[in-house]
Every structure is written in C-alpha cells, then in structure tokens.
# Entry
Amino acid sequence: MTLEAFALRPATEQDAPAIRALIRAVRINPMDLGWRRFVVAVDERGELIGCGQVKVHRDGARELASIAVVPSHRGRGVARATIQRLMAEHKAPLWLMCHSDLVPLYVRFAFREVVADRQVPPYFRRMRRLADLFRVGSAADGHLAVMVWGSDDGSLGQGQPHVALPEADSSSLPRSTITRRIAASEDDPSGPRSDPGWLGRPVLPRGIRRMRPGSAAWCSS
# Structure
C-alpha cells in the first residue's frame, strides 16, 4: 500500500507563485490570492501539493476558498486535512460556494446548504443570483450552492434573524503544522467531482468563462 507524507503549514511569500499556478491549473477563481491567508500542503521534498484559504468579504462574511490539490496527489487526504486545518483556525460561521454536485462532500464537514436569500450574506447572494441568471436557458446542469458551517451570535444574513446551524466538533481538528502518513485508499474518491481538491467544474456554459475573473463563472472562489 502506497503511503503519502505531507505537511501543513502557513504559507510564506515564497509560496505565492506556486499558489497562483495551482489555482489557475485547477481553473477556480484566480482573484484575491493574498498568500498571508493561505495554508499550504507540501510533500517530503518541500514542493507545494495543495492549498486553501479563508477570505473575509466586505460584509464581514468569512469564506472557505481556493481549496486545490495537485491532480497526482488527490484522493490521499490532502484536501481533507487542509479544510480541517482552516476550520480549526477560524471561528464559525464559515461560508463556501461550490457546484451542487459537491454539496454531499461538504456535508461530511458539517457544512449545510443555505437556500433562503435572507439567510445568506450579501456577497454570496449576489454571486448566486448572477449564476442563476446565466444558467437560465442554458444546458448547464446543477447550480451554484452556498453552504455554511457553524453559527454565531449574530445573523446569517445582514439584518436577518439568527438561524441555528450544526457545528462541527473542532476539538479533534489539527491546529499545528503536522506531518501525516496517510494510506492512499483512505479517502479515495470515486471520481474527480467527489474530490475536495477538484472544484473547477464550471456552473455555467463554457462560453460564460469569458467573463472577467472573479465572476460566477468560477464554481468556487
């Protein structure tokens, strides 16, 4: 059985080019990639094999974003460890956007899809409405899902009443830089759309990808 060793650590300025290259390679939102917000996964040779960040939007919402894994390292727990690390380091709630095919995957991390606009922060509300607008009359399947993990003392949507959401048990999540040896079969996905490192499947038809970067043409930011 093949084992993979990798370490999680905060990104450094030297990681910035590799982060940008990976994000572009997996075809997700290439905007707002400040290296200081990133956690990176590196292999035994010190090469970057995965990354993720938490963005803070103008409305105060925090977004789990830029989850990406080098294709040859997928299905080995890299994305899972990155997501758990970010969840451990940032208080709830955390939001994310993904193609609806990936909703069951993030449910495993105690995220839940939020359908009602009044419960969604303004940024995610705008992105979902834009995606829905371009999906009308197209052959694209699925939709842009907005999901949230945890709850806080405030409202989920600006000026809206608090709605209780399930919270993940963060007591067992990794909080320090660690090296893990993981069996290749531990989290072997059935296909790329089941892999947390694969978030590049466009919600919209290919032609919409000509829109400016950062638009809803990217499945996840």
